[in-house]
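Figure S4 source data
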Amino acid sequence: MQKLLDFVRNRATMLVIFIVLFGMAFVFDDIPTIWQGYLNILQSPSVLISDYLHIGGLGATLFNVATIMLINIIMISALKLKMSGPIFAGLLTIAGFSFFGKNIFNTIPIYLGIYFHARYQKLEFKSFIIVVLFSTGISPIVSYLIFGSGWPFAVGIPAGIIVGIITGFILPALSAHTIRFHKGYNLYNIGFAMGLLSMLYAAILTNVFDQDLFRFDSTTSEAFHFELVILTIVMSLIFIASGFIRNYRVLTEYPKLMRSTGRLVSDFIRDYGRDISMVNVGVMGIISVLFITVLGIQINGAVMGGILTVMGFGAFGKHPRNSIPVMLGASVWFVYVQWTTGGNAGVGLAIAVLFVTAVAPIAGRFGILIGIFAGFIHISITPYTYTFQGGFDLYNNGFAAGFVAALLVPFFEFLRKEKFQEDS
């Protein structure tokens, strides 16, 4: 009984979110509809962008999100890990991408691969928990080989499982190396590592197996915009309230968090406490809703994934001071493309307005104007990185952010040193 009470106390906020998501699934749809929609989700190739709201409906999508969240919460508890900024960000990122690309079927092989990596290194599996939580951004490779390649199941199923396990086995070592490339200024570091692997897979499948990786329907559903806006606001308020319940002085302490650059590894729960971090998570959710409302962006599965990811990283590097500038820079490009195309900027650019916060540490380190510039550069190159990686890396903005940080940070660090020398 004591273990159960400790479990509930340590995971209270996330359990409330799970209950909200799980309960709402059955509010919007009946059980047969949810089950059929869920089967459609599991059998989807799931490459970027596969909107589960379009493929399975709202009830089935919320069921997918809630069940994957619960499995990971149980795994974290079984490993006896305390909630930290990276773990919290990982959980909400998993929830977000379960709206468009992640399901229980395509994530398990990746987890197995990381488990085998831990055994090979003779280390505990829980020491790789951060990689585990973010690893499933490349899970579409499993679904694609099984359901999208056109191969017989006798070939596709073992191919998907084996490639998924190999991917999980490689990923921890690769992600440890790629952080040096962008010096920690890309919060989606594992997304960058997965982009490199996805680029390799795309090249092999295109050149060796003559696969057309961009033939799938990328239709999105904006039919549930209002419901998802309400859901986002409710979740944001739950997080904010959870901070105030235990610490009514949280707002007076909040500015301490916003002085952080957000550069990896910025664990806000460790450095500033759970209460301040949860308030920041909720604030980032409200900011996300404000941005998409002002820009006229309708919420679909991919946009909802962006919102939840922004909220998750509210405990792991993002806050209003470093996020708003890069979002403003991305918004400038989004509005320009909307204007020149007659309102057809596309979902890729719409979600980039949210996912551009991967480079928020640039604004945190170098200031507002440079942050705006970085956001503008990021959103302008994101569509090109998608064509490189074939849609297997759900964290395409993390892939793009790695290049943005690697290009801009050395230049601005050079200018900063020059300015320092002149001032001295």
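Figure S5 source data
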Amino acid sequence: MFSRRILPQLTEELQHAPAVALLGPRQSGKTTLALEVAKTLPSIYLDLESERDRAKLAQAELYLTDHLDKLVILDEVHRAPGLFPVLRGLIDQARRNGKRAGQYLLLGSASLDLLQQAGETLAGRIAYLELGPLDVLEIGAQAPDTLWLRGGFPESLTAPSDARSLRWRQNFIRSYLERDVPQFGPRIAADTLRRFWTMLAHHQSGLLNMTQLARNMGVDVKTIQSYIDLLCSLLLVRRLPPWHSNIGKRLVKTPKIYLRDSGLVHALLDIERKETLLSHPVLGASWEGFCIENLLCCAPANVQGYFYRTSAGAEIDLLLVWPGGELWAIEIKRSLTPKLERGFHIACEDLAPSRKLVVYPGQETFPLHADIQAVPLAALCLEVATKTHA
């Protein structure tokens, strides 16, 4: 089992909140992590995709009342939305009896759907955590380039060959399209959504142009918006917002769009091996998206990520905004001898960030200029994850 960085935080939340929702895409390791937690305290596990476990909850209040002394783990909880009012009543009952934390761990494969259900009935009683695929600080002996090629889903990363890894991801995409998407969103033909998903893979790290996407798909802009909202809710796509500030510049106001797992980008484009990837047009965009996703996953929850671009061409790939307003400007280059364009320097003059960094695929940190450092991805992820902010 991989060591997940979120485990201490999950344990702490269970010590303070009556319910904790652990959200993340399918196969990212939520169940494995929950069962690891279950080893440390009295608990029961119910998989709501199992007919047998759902039958136990036919009279949910009666069944759960018998287990108020345990942590109840409810996997794929979105399949039983009627449970939330029951959980609220049991949480309040336990509070009156002096138990105020560690009653329910809810596992879900989507963000928006689950948050809306839980938010209506469990306000003030639930904490939310997100578990994505593995990041560079969690992969142990695996090479970072293997993580980049195959993505962070454990089964894909640890497959015996690149071919088997690609096959796993293709099956994963198919099961999402045919089985999971219909659960969460309006009925969309699997072929249509696959075509759209593939289009986003070709457009990795690009500005989100919904009008162009709508024209290419032969649908209207509202339909494209609903597709993107759905994939974001399933935690498969990220919209990176543009930096907005009154600095007297004409700023780009359109978000950038990323498939959050680089392995899915490569599977949708049928890229099996690293050699193929290195000669593919998506190379730079794939590396940029991979680095940005890792940095944002490793950053504390109160750190915000943006990109910066002006109409005159000043640009920063990733702008980390720390509590209190401190800025880190991060440029991403897929070269062992990274060179910075003039646009990065102009953007830094506009924003005056406290740190100027270039992520590159090498192993050592070294100065590029007097105030700019070239840093390996894993080293910067570790620095971001462990930075304390006064």
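The longest strand covers residues 315-321. The two ends are 34 Å apart (CA to CA).
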